[in-house]
Input
Amino acid sequence: MQLSDFDYQLPAQLIAQAPLAERSDSRLLLVDPQAGRYMDKLFTDLADLIEDGDLLVFNDTRVIPARLFGQKKSGGKIEVMVERVLDDETLLAHIRASKAPKPGTGLILENKIECTMQAREGDLFVLQQDSRPWLALLDQYGHVPLPPYIQRADANTDRERYQTVFASNPGAVAAPTAGLHFNHATLESLQGRGVMFAHITLHVGAGTFQPVRGDDIDSHVMHPERIDVAASVVEAIKQTRQRGRRVIAVGTTVVRSLETAAATGKLLPFQGESTLFIKPGYAFKTIDAMLTNFHLPKSTLLMLVSAFAGTDLIRRAYAHAVTEQYRFFSYGDAMFIANRAEAEKV
Output
């Protein structure tokens, strides 16, 4: 398939620029690949679509305030977007500047943090300082790394709303957005009905917003992301299968994590990096249903969702969502794909 197969027209006014008043106020588009149809719902209807004994798998990564503004000590403004904190003193970052800093260049970030650009690793820059742990510095001085399609500066409220209520492991620079719709009351209600929960960790990197270059999608290489699928998650999925219930991924990050852990054909605990690229033709091994947001045109996330539900059905569902003026992307509405489709032949 070609990149153009995953394009669609989206009016700019449908890109959600801010969250709704309440997390659970979102709309929900129910997509049923087996019936080949979709229906308009509300997110609060999700409880009626999940059965007792089903397993919801969440991504518990926590977004760090990963954007910093500053300048070179020699002059020249820069913008730093953290990709990964390596240790207390060192991190990898993307740097936007009129001229890329050379190794040894001193930087001053947010008028408070003095650091040095030590080396290049491909498109990334290694930044080092020894004053305080990077995570503490980012928490105090960093900005919420809102996606590039949100055309406003971050606000104090984004520190809480661009974060799931179950976030616990800091390291992501983008939110696992399907989880943003859940509040504590919704989670408690589902648990009270006998719905089971499990958590993986995938620290979403800034590379998630990088475009696919070239029309031949088979030549695309995914950016690596850190994944942790614990033995307890593997056991929870095994027990769900034994009950004859569904494994439901809350977000594409959970899909990639579980499918990476099952790459050998058997689901096993996994801790490491993944570059798994899921596109139409992929045979899913671990999940039965998926909750997700609406994704950018020509994105690898749209390809993943198309692989799960079927390219034609997703194309029609997205066209319907545009017509009905659903809210798109990170702070937008949700889609629940109730059953996975048979793998498409490509």
Summary: The chain has a mean pLDDT of 95. Residues 3-63+158-337 form a domain with the QueA-like fold (CATH 3.40.1780.10).
